[in-house]
Amino acid sequence: MSLKRIVKTLAFAGIFIFAAQQVEAQDLLARQAPIDRRMKKVDTLALQNIIHKENLENPSAQLYDDWTNKFAHRATELPDSFKIDLRHFCMPTPSRVITSNFGSRWGRQHKGIDIKVYIGDTIRAAFSGKVRMVDYEGSGYGKYIVIRHPNGLETIYGHLSKQLVSENQVVRAGEPIGLGGNTGRSTGSHLHFETRLCGVALNPALLFDFRAQDVVADNYLFRKSSYERESGEANRMRGKVGNGGYSREEVSGEIAKNDATPNYGEEKLYHKVASGETLSSIAEKRGVTVDQLCKLNHLSRRSRVHSGQILRYS
């Protein structure tokens, strides 16, 4: 074999080996890619578990500097805005009877909503969280419970006849935490229910609709600039009427009325959803109820509407 042919043969062999190595390397990368994705997924799950564990140990740590059982509430600096997740909730009581609104009452500020319950009625955690306080205050809350939640809220349950949980206990939404009562500064058996953000009382009617036994939306965006106005509107829409509140007969009649098949007349009217609108805001604007909107458009109260959507309201 001539020298020229030998050199040519070796050159071809080198090129073949180099190409084979590249193919093998590409195959190795291809085989490695799913492993890398799986490892990334494992790392993400591990991180989520760590975050979940930290939330259980110290819910809403980003908003609160400490964890203490020395006070029921202590106001700190509120953020200019804060989005509160209202999903995965449970109504603290099935009672629909509001006997006292949030706001000015008898010359002082009433920091929660009073819901009619009887002594011994089951009271449940509104959201999952960790019990911060289980205590008694004779001149105020009576037997009460404070729970801090990962969504940033603290809820307070007052005038209980019995507390069923202990401090630092982790509870889930809907778990029984106490029994209705008439302890402390109370003129009759009821549940005094508060929702607080950074220790500052927020009107529960902004978040809960007790007569509908539901939250008002999946989220509530707290804004310093508009909170006072929104609170007043919430009392008008979801609070009591007059000094006597809602009686059980009035509530039962309202439920029966809403459950009946409505007569909307012959004319069909429609609303085009604008950005930021909700079923509640549309119902208020068009002078109808959320239930009417839901029935006419085959929606549930939890349905989300989007900009440009066409809804029938009559």
Description:
The chain has 314 residues and is of the alpha+beta class. The protein is built from five helices and 19 strands. The longest helix has 55 residues, at 3-57.
Uncertain residue segments: 241-266
Structural class: alpha+beta
Content of β-strand: 15-25%
Biggest pleated-sheet summary:
8 strands, antiparallel
Element order: H for helix, E for strand = HEEEEEEEEEEEEEEEEEHHEHHE
**Got a strand count?**
19
Shape: globular
**Separation of the first and last Cα atoms:** 97 Å
Overall residue-averaged pLDDT value: 78
Number of helices: 5
Helix share bin: 25-40%
What's the alpha carbon Rg, rounded to whole Å?
A: 29 Å
Keywords:
eight-stranded antiparallel β-sheet, three-stranded antiparallel β-sheet, 25% strand, alpha+beta
Describe the SSE topology.
Blueprint: H1 3-57, E1 81-85, E2 98-100, E3 103-105, E4 108-110, E5 113-115, E6 122-124, E7 129-137, E8 142-148, E9 153-160, E10 162-163, E11 170-171, E12 176-179, E13 191-197, E14 200-202, E15 208-209, E16 214-215, E17 219-223, H2 227-238, H3 248-259, E18 270-272, H4 279-286, H5 290-297, E19 310-312
Antiparallel strand pairs: 1-17, 2-5, 3-4, 5-13, 6-12, 7-8, 7-11, 8-9, 9-13, 10-12, 13-14, 15-16, 18-19
Concise synopsis of the structure shown:
With 314 residues, this protein is an alpha+beta fold.
